[in-house]
Amino acid sequence: MSIVTRFAPSPTGYLHLGHAASALIGFARASNAKGRFLLRIEDIDASRCRPEYTKAIIEDLTWLGITWRDQPHIQSCHMADYRTAIDRLDAMDLLYPCFCSRAEIAAAMGAPHGTETIYPGTCRRLDPAIAADRIAHGDAYALRLRTAAAAARAGTLRYHEDGDGWLTANPNPLGDIVLARKDVPASYHLCVTHDDALQGVTLVTRGADLREATPIHVLLQRLLGWPTPAYAHHPLLTDATGRRLAKRDHAATIRDLRTAGTTPADIRKIISCRIGPIPSL
Ligand code: GLU
Questions:
Q1: Phi-psi region of 127 (alpha: psi -120 to 50; beta: other; left: phi over 0)
Q2: Ligand 1 nearest-atom number relative to CA 217
Q3: Measured in angstroms, how far is the CA atom of residue 274 from the centroid of ligand 1?
Q4: Distance (Å, whole) CA 141 – CA 76
Q5: Separation of alpha carbons 2 and 29, rounded Å
Q6: According to the model, what pLDDT value does residue 248 have?
Q7: Closest residue CA from atom 10 of ligand 1
Q8: By alpha-carbon position, which residue is closest to atom 3 of ligand 1?
Q9: Contact 147 CB / ligand 1 (< 6 Å)
Q10: Is the C-beta atom of 43 inside 6 A of ligand 1?
């Protein structure tokens, strides 16, 4: 079976060296196997994504020497498909409406506001009649996955991680993740698994920060009858102080490095020095 990989950036800023690593690794893995490399623009969050960043992503990838098959898959054009997948999970009774604000969740957990927390399950225990009444009154809500019930239904989940072999995926530590919100009607987890299946992706190459989300993706694939690709999470690039690169770190954007005279070959060298060799073409 031929390899299909993809690069799936969110156009919320300019690409940095970490993105370049993901894209170059995925491109090399597909090219070396005479497979296909695809581009997906993950732009479901209209409040954070900008068309000018999509344009810049395409320019920067082209400058890096990366080419992709087909037109880029633009997530914001596929909201109805994501809705269909959410409805299927709802029909399995695996979703519930959650009315909690971030501040309420943090307070319930005794955590400072703004800290990432695992949802304590408050609305999972809400009387369905009260939930229906709140929805009828127009209260804003998110749809959350009953992760424990979903995992029990799915049974043993396994996926292949490059370098580690076959692993068992346990989605429970991630808690009841959000699959849809009022302002963003489909979540990253839902869309990424939907699109990996739709685009026929067989190998997901991405940064290690997404490794902990993988069990949820494997769970959604099983529930929705989609194939589970193999995964290859690469080490994250960090700045001089050891912090992982983020879009706010302008010094590391491909755009600024380009302007400063850095060549694509230099970018490959910088990445290889920091996280190990990128497969050569
Ligand atoms: N859109 C995600 C990001 O920019 C990447 C998703 C993925 O590769 O699974 O971080």
A1: beta
A2: 9
A3: 20
A4: 21
A5: 11
A6: 64
A7: 9
A8: 9
A9: no
A10: no
Condensed to tens digits (0 to 9), the pLDDT of residues 68-99 reads 999 999 999 999 999 999 999 999 999 999 99
- 20, 165, 198, 207 alpha-carbon torsion, rounded to 10°: -20
Spatial separation of the C-alpha atoms in residues 255 and 238, rounded to whole Å: 18
Domain boundary assignment for the chain: 1-71+235-281
For residue 8 and ligand 1, the question of a CB distance below 6 A is answered with: yes
Q: CATH second-level architecture of 1-71+235-281?
A: 3-Layer(aba) Sandwich (3.40)
**Among 4, 6, 10, 198, which residue has the most ligand 1 atoms within 8 Å of its CB, making it the best to mutate?**
10
Between 116 and 34, whose confidence is greater? Answer: 34
- 152 Cα to the center of ligand 1, angstroms: 27
CA dist., res. 24 & res. 18, Å (int) = 10
Sheet holding 178-180, edge to edge: 95-98, 142-145, 178-180
Distance CA(259)–CA(91), nearest Å, equals: 52
Separation of 108 CA from ligand 1 center, angstroms? 30
The rounded Å distance from CA 216 to ligand 1 centre is 14
Tens-digit pLDDT profile for residues 156-202: 999 999 999 999 999 999 999 999 998 889 999 999 999 999 999 99
In this structure, the residue with its CA closest to atom 4 of ligand 1 is 9
Q: What is the DSSP string of 127-165?
A: -HHHHHHHHHTT---EEEE-HHHHHHHH-S-EEEETTTE
Q: Tell me the per-residue pLDDT of 38-70, one tens digit each, with 9 for 90 and over.
A: 999 999 999 999 999 999 999 999 999 999 999
Length reported for the chain: 281
